[in-house]
Structures are given as structure tokens and as C-alpha cells.
Amino acid sequence: MKRAEKADRILRILDDLYPEPPIPLDHADAFSLLVAVLLSAQCTDERVNMVTPGLFALAPDAERMAGLPEEKILEQIRSCGLAPGKARNIKALSRILVSEHGGEVPRSFEALEALPGVGHKTASVVMSQAFGVPAFPVDTHIHRLAARWGLSSGKNVERTEADLKALFPRETWNHLHLAIIFFGREYCPARGHDLSSCAICSWAATKKRIREEAQDGGGGPRSRGSASGRKKAASKKATR
Ligand code: SF4
């Protein structure tokens, strides 16, 4: 099957499973989303959603965040990984937003990526989820699934992003990246499980990938609570 055909079929399956995937990080505006995405590096979305209410109660916008001592920010976010660096970056980027962007989050990849602690993935999430600009933020999970599904043989997230953007229509990018994230969380353990019972890998995985998974100890479920998920995925497949 050609990559484009695979992409089309995968899109239909994901649309069916996740017609309107929600944004996982709680936020009120572009600024709170930017800070939440920055906090989510090396940290679960659940944990970020636990710490952001306290932080934004103290400083709901860039101006007030810029005026907050770094130690105060750190106090609020301490339970997230890499907290000291994140506190430093949140303070520094808030100052820049105030001094260079009138206290607003800029609506451009270039300006976002110039902020401390903000890389291309974070900028893509903000452009996509705060401003509705088509973007395809690729994290390690999407990178891994794109490889498993044979949609990309990219060795890095940049290449995978380019491959996925070429395969899927631009107007699908914003909800599709979320749908892939939700599918991965619900169904996909990192390694070692039975691909033949899956709604997608059963027909989309490359032979090379199936071989590698088998060598990795696949063939037997080793789930992260995804046994029921696999059943659901399998029954979806049966109805198709
Ligand atoms: S076989 Fe596993 S990795 Fe592949 S899509 Fe299905 S659940 Fe995810």
C-alpha cells in the first residue's frame, strides 16, 4: 500500500475514534498555553494541569509573571521535571513578551522560537492550539507512531514532521496531531505487543517494523493498561 493510501485510511480511523480531540493542557489564553506547554517537557499533562492553577492565580498574564520573583515561580512548579530551568525561562520569556510584544504572545513561529525555552514543537503547539494556524507538532510519541505506521522513515522529529505534512491535508493537521497523541496514549505501549490485533498496525506496519517489534519481545501483550484499548481497536477494525 502506498504511503498516501495509508495516510488516508489512518486519517479516517482516527477521525472516527477522535472526531473532536480536546486540548490536553488546561489554559485560558495563548499566554497560559505557552507556559503550560513549556512546563510539559519531561512532565505529564496531568501534572502540568495540577500546578498551573496555582501559578496563574499569582500571575495570569505576562506582565504579572515578569514581576514575580523566580523563586515564587519555582515554588509553584517544583513538582514538574526540570523545574529550576523552567522557572528561569518562564520569567525571562514573560519579560520579553512585555518589552518586545506589548505583553502578548506573538503569532509567528520565528518570534515564538526566539523566546527562551521555546523550541519548534512548543511554537507549533501554540500556533496550532492557541491561534488555529495549521501546524504539526511532532513529539517523540508521534515520531514513533509515524515510523510504526510506515508514514515516515525520518531519523528525527524534523524529518517526520515534513513527511507527515506532505502526506496529510493542511486543514487536518491541527486535529490530527491531537488524535494521534490520544490514540498513542490509549492503545500503544512503547514496545513489545501484538500488532496483529490493532486497528492500524495490523495492516499499516511495515514488515521491518513487525520484525523489530517481534525481536523486541512483541507478540505478547505488555500493556500500559491498554488491553481493553486493543480490544476496542480490534473491534473497530472488525466493523470496518
Ligand atoms: S499495534 Fe501497537 S503501536 Fe501499532 S498502532 Fe496499534 S497499538 Fe499502536
Summarize the structure.
The chain is mainly α and 240 residues long. The protein has helices at residues 3-17, 30-39, 45-58, 62-66, 70-77, 83-101, 109-113, 120-129, 140-148, 157-167, 173-187, 201-204, 207-215, 227-239.
Please tell me about this protein's structure.
By secondary structure, this protein is mainly alpha-helical. It folds into two domains: 3-19 and 137-238, Endonuclease Iii, domain 2 (Orthogonal Bundle); 30-129, Hypothetical protein, domain 2 (Endonuclease III, domain 1, Orthogonal Bundle), CATH 1.10.340.30. The chain is built from 14 helices and no strands. It has helices spanning 3-17, 30-39, 45-58, 62-66, 70-77, 83-101, 109-113, 120-129, 140-148, 157-167, 173-187, 201-204, 207-215, 227-239. The longest helix has 19 residues, at 83-101. It is elongated, with a radius of gyration of 19 Å. The two termini are 17 Å apart. Bound molecules: iron/sulfur cluster. Iron/sulfur cluster binds next to loops.
Can you lay out the helices and strands and say which pair or pack?
Blueprint: H1 3-17, H2 30-39, H3 45-58, H4 62-66, H5 70-77, H6 83-101, H7 109-113, H8 120-129, H9 140-148, H10 157-167, H11 173-187, H12 201-204, H13 207-215, H14 227-239
The chain binds iron/sulfur cluster.
Please mark out the parts with pLDDT under 50 across 5 or more consecutive residues, or reply none: 218-240
CATH topology of the largest domain: Endonuclease Iii, domain 2
Topology as H/E string?
Answer: HHHHHHHHHHHHHH
Domain module count? 2
Provide the CATH top-level class of the largest domain: Mainly Alpha
Main sheet specs: none
Report the average pLDDT across residues: 89
Strand content range: under 5%
Shape summary: elongated
> How would you name the CATH homologous superfamily of the largest domain?
Helix-hairpin-Helix base-excision DNA repair enzymes (C-terminal)
Q: How many E strands?
A: 0
How far apart lie the N and C ends? 17 Å
Oligomer: single chain
Please tally the helical runs, counting DSSP H or I stretches of 4 or more residues: 14
Class based on secondary structure composition and strand pairing: mainly alpha
CATH architecture annotation name of the largest domain: Orthogonal Bundle
Helix content: 55-70%
Bound molecules: iron/sulfur cluster
| Rg from Cα | 19 Å
